Amino acid sequence: MSCLDNDIRNPLRRDGTCRPDRWFVALGEEFVKIDERSEAELQELTKAIAAGIIFYDLNNQPNRDWSAFFDKTVPEAAPHMALFKAFLAMFAQAQNHVNTLTRSHLEHYYKTVLQLKPLVAVPDKAVVVWELAKNVQKHLLIARTPISAEKDKTQVERIYRTERDTVLNRAYLDVVQQLAFDKYSININGSFKSFTKPFSKKLATSKADLEKMTKNGEHWPLFGIQQYNLAAPDRTMEDAEFGFAIAHPVLLMAEGRRRLTLTLNFATAFDPSKFYPSAQFKYALKYYLSGTGQWLEVW
Predict the structure, then answer these.
(1) What is the phi/psi pair of residue 279, to 5°?
(2) Does pTM top 0.85 for this prediction?
(3) What CA dihedral angle connects 57, 63, 69 and 72, to 10 degrees?
């Protein structure tokens, strides 16, 4: 995904929707520390320095160097190692303090030099999925209804509130399908015409299927896989059936007889008469009317 430079109104406000507009980790205040040495690295450094320092015995005579005091065979409970460990712990406090200078420098630059002001706090938002009890068919959830969430890092309970009145009913997700469109060309009277053929695949047909997909972390190609040039046994998707619905108060026919005329206008690039005789084109489509309990097929 790419973004144009003129689309970024304020370079200090990033929404993370495109690569150039994402926050660079290298610009973080803790990406580069003044002193990045760990305790193990300090121990190795001390051992290397000790090899270059001459050790003088009780008679004030040189006797090898100090590296033997930091050999791996020396137990950590040895008195001099315990003192050395305590020194490293105290030195870590100084390291942490000096590593805050980067943050102090950035804050001085942003707040004092650039005179930037922090944004005001905005309420957090969350998406909530509701499920009615088995004996409830409909429920009104009024606006500003409090919803308790998990506690934050400071052990303070987070409370969300609904934005508006919402009527909850027993509508549910019936099926999750993958839809893909394959483009192909057909030679018609010496001229190639481009067409699009839809394919579909059912991914889940029940709540249990959805929970299984989520739990197992299943994934699939978002825009499908090309199917048109594959042999029938090799296809992983089926021919898709889709259509459109028309709703209008005039169509609320409780009684009586009425005549409905539906006119379809196709693009100039598509001539249905080349594929279906004019008298038979109506059979290329299926027509349904909504009934009280199910869809009623006209023909």
Answers:
(1) -80, -15
(2) no
(3) -150
Q: How many distinct helices (H) and strands (E) make up the chain?
A: 4, 11
pLDDT computed for residue 213 by the predictor: 80
Do 226 and 185 contact (CB within 8 A), yes or no? no
Q: Give me the average pLDDT of each 10-residue run along the chain (299 residues).
A: 42 54 72 89 91 90 88 84 92 93 88 89 85 90 92 89 91 82 82 84 84 79 82 89 82 76 72 61 77 81
Cα 110 → chain centroid: 31
Measured CA to CA, the distance from residue 191 to residue 186 in angstroms comes to: 8
Coil vs helix vs strand at 109: helix
Q: Are strands 54-56 and 62-65 parallel, antiparallel or unpaired?
A: antiparallel
DSSP element (H, E) containing 49: helix 39-50
pLDDT of 2: 39
Asked if 178 and 223 touch (Cβ cutoff 8 Å), the reply is no
Residue 181 has a pLDDT of 87
Q: Answer whether 161's CB lies under 8 Å from 145's CB.
A: yes
Residue 141 sits at the vertex; the CA angle it makes with 137 and 144, to the nearest 5 degrees, is 170
Phi, psi of 284 (to 5 degrees): -75, -10
- Residue 28 to residues 32, 107, 124, 234: CA-CA distances in angstroms? 8, 12, 23, 50
Indicate the residue type of 224. G
Residue carrying the six token digits 């005579």: 61
Tokens of 70: 């930091």
Closest by CA to 132, choosing from 99, 109, 166, is 166
- Helix ranges (H only) for 51-187 are 79-98, 101-107
Task: Report how far residue 201's alpha carbon sits from residue 238's, in angstroms, rounded to the nearest whole number.
Answer: 6
